[in-house]
Amino acid sequence: MRTKILAIFACLLWGSAFAGAKIGFEYTTPLHLSGMRFMLAGLFLIPFLIYQKINWKSNLKEWRYMLLFGILQTFIQYGFFFMGLDKVPAAISAIIIGGGPFFVAVMAHFAMKDDRMSFRKILAIALGMSGIVFISFAKGGSIHTDMTFYYGVVLLIISNVVGASTNIIVARNRNKVSPVMLTSFANFSGGLILYVVSFFTEDWFIKSYTIEFYVAWIWLALIPAVGFSIWYSLLKKPDVKVSELNMWKFIVPVAGVILSWLLVPGEYPDLYSVLGIVIITVALLILQRK
């Protein structure tokens, strides 16, 4: 039960990132914002590492492994995610990012001996994806002819595939490093790379930062700092299967929709969104039924 509660909490955090990112885009460019976000996220965890009395010397021996994570998870996965989100409407982004459990389940089937596909998983994935499609239509999904849109879609799909691979890597190296140390190192190193790359590839436009920007920036930094620390701690457990844990990520677009109802002026419940949430709930219940 504790694993489920922590997984749900992490997914609720990630579900709030869409609104924060869109606010940040009003003030600066995607990679620049992403770099600022993850460097701050890495720094946020240092006091917690000190409080936990983590063995820094032992963990830093695995700096190559943690740097690989910084490149894969932070630089590639979230760099592509932010660039794709900047080009694709939030509704369509929700469909693609919400398909993450599908990519994880397929890759885990071939990479993890104890994590095979089953009829129950296939049914849960199919229902979960159906629920996300319902929600996306409620948020204004439509056919696009602009090639920039399809470029954004490709970036989001790559982000999903890389995210699936990092989950499997953590599960296959359960006792290599502290999950909090891994999160802090990967966030800061990947964020630094994003920041440097943004300097050469983007035309920064930096408006006068307001309280709104600082709140969004700090919140965006807290999400990966807390979310990935929880997630990697769960993946280290021997009894946790990568594909089944990632099914909870169907909650992410649901959280995004519900939070928009509560926080964004003009947003309100509608039939498609409610149906989508019901379908995703049924999918998660099927997954839990043994």
Structural class: mainly alpha
How many β-strands, per DSSP? Answer: 0
The count of helical stretches stands at 15
Share of helical residues? over 70%
Please tell me what the overall shape is.
globular
Task: Give a short synopsis of this structure.
It is built from 15 helices and no strands.
Q: Would you mind describing this structure in some detail?
A:
By secondary structure, the chain is an all-alpha fold. Helices cover 78% and strands 0% of the residues. Helix 3 packs antiparallel against helix 6 (63-87). The longest helix is centred in the middle third of the chain and has 26 residues, at 147-172. The model has no long low-confidence stretch (mean pLDDT 81).
Key features?
290 residues; mainly alpha; 15 helices; globular
Chart the SSEs and their pairings.
Layout: H1 2-15, H2 17-25, H3 30-44, H4 46-51, H5 56-60, H6 63-87, H7 90-98, H8 100-111, H9 119-138, H10 147-172, H11 179-201, H12 211-235, H13 242-246, H14 251-263, H15 271-288
Helix pairs in contact: 1-12, 1-14, 2-12, 3-6, 3-11, 3-12, 6-10, 6-11, 7-9, 7-10, 8-10, 9-15, 11-12
